[in-house]
Amino acid sequence: MNQTIAIAAPKVTMPDTQTVTSVTHWTDRLFSFRCTRPASLRFRSGEFVMIGLAGENGKPLLRAYSIASPNWDDELEFYSIKVPDGPLTSRLQHIRVGDPIVLRPKPVGTLVHDALLPGERLWLLATGTGLAPFASLIRDPETYERFGTVVLMHTCREASELEYGRRLVESLKDDPLIGEMVEGRLLYYPTTTREASPRMGRITDNLTSGKVFADLGLPAMTPGTDRAMICGSLAFNLDVKAVLEGLGLNEGANSEPREFVVEKAFVGDGI
Q: What are 170's strand-pairing partners?
């Protein structure tokens, strides 16, 4: 049911305001959009910014959103859930091409390469719209310069909710910048938890049972070779963190790189 409309973006002159250039509705609960990028904005793939809309009181209503586009993109892309009574997304889901949005150009976040020690494999573990920062990272050449293998595990309730990620991954083989780097090195492992699909199960279960390792022909995670990034709901983050710690991996940060990192500031389903 997805539909994309795009036009050339007009020049933006208002401070902290950017212009929507395209909107795609993937399901009745998920949508993505692109907007103009401030000329001065520099960010590391995986970081987030504050975006939103002007409130009724004249003040902007802002929430943290991971940037889904890579740091070399001329525009910014975001991937969002729709919450009918959410203060922001109840309105944001209705944006159209040409609409203004507020964007604070101060990127931050922990899902960046600098927060991890060097390793052989990078595991990107996400549920729902937690995929957004990884949509940025899998399009960044630095990811493949640092790691020999990149594994993207993405879990949703239904197969339709995996469509954004599936199309993105499939498009990478034809990407003129990283197409050759991705071939044979990006392993995509999508699963569902409610609707029947070729692969099912929660990320935690597929890790602890060893199923994902068997399916992909990879050895089990070890702190000597594997690095991981986690992005999802608070409960998901805590559950996966416990699994990784059980495998001997330690949580890191920008100031102290270790074997895995968690994005604690990612917006959940109440936005």
A: none
